[in-house]
Every structure is written in structure tokens, then in C-alpha cells.
Design a protein that fits this description.
With 116 residues, this protein is of the alpha+beta class. It contains four helices and three strands, in the order ββααβαα. The two termini are 18 Å apart.
């Protein structure tokens, strides 16, 4: 099992268009200050942290453009999507049943762009 892609929209430093971060061959995040390195890690924590406080969505998690007042926003949305590949399960139905953790089973999409 490995996370191969992270898709972030309207979360912290990531704006209202989808930002895709390919993780398949990635082993380190390098970038200028304020380029989104910490926000990408925080996005992963929102999905996978063992601590409930890290998984809570707060007002400060929403992207607000620099020239706008956060108090002007009554409503907004954000999305964080992690694409997880289970390469070790290919062509082995028994491994699928026993390898995928139960809390992930309900999130499996059977086809590209399919609903879990």
C-alpha cells in the first residue's frame, strides 16, 4: 500500500483549483518558503492522523486570498483526496479481503472516477 497522489483544493495555501502532487516517486518535499510544503503534510494529517484533533477542519484550514478579509466568508468548501494504490493485491482476491484495513474498505472505488 502506498499513497501515489494527493489532490488538494482550497486548503490553506492551496487555492480554489485542484493541485495534484504526485507522490509515487517522491521521497522529499523541497520548495521555497510559502510554497505549500507544510500545507501538503497538514493535508495528509487531516486524512490519516491517529489524533482526532489533527483531523478536525477549522476555519483557518480554508484558503483565503491574501487581499481578502476572512470575515467576509460565511461559507466555503475544501477537499483533500489521497489516491492509494494496493499494488500487492493485483490478481489475488484473498489478499484483497485480508490486506485492506476494514476502515479503508468502504472507501474503495471500483472504477476510475467511481464513487466509493
Amino acid at each position: 500500500m502506498k499513497i501515489t497522489k494527493l489532490i488538494i483544493n482550497n486548503f490553506r495555501s492551496f487555492g480554489p483549483t485542484n493541485t495534484e502532487i504526485e507522490l509515487e516517486e517522491l521521497s522529499v518535499l523541497i520548495g521555497a518558503n510559502s510554497s505549500g510544503k507544510t500545507s501538503a503534510i497538514q493535508a495528509l494529517l487531516k486524512l490519516f492522523s491517529p489524533y482526532q484533533r489533527d483531523r478536525l477542519i477549522e476555519r483557518s484550514d480554508f484558503h483565503i486570498p491574501a487581499n481578502e478579509n476572512p470575515l467576509d466568508y460565511d461559507e466555503s468548501s475544501l477537499s483533500i483526496e489521497a489516491i492509494i494504490d494496493f499494488n500487492e493485491l493485483e490478481n489475488d482476491a484473498e489478499k484483497v479481503r485480508t490486506t485492506i484495513p476494514p476502515h479503508f474498505n468502504h472507501m474503495v472505488a471500483g472504477e476510475v472516477d467511481g464513487s466509493p
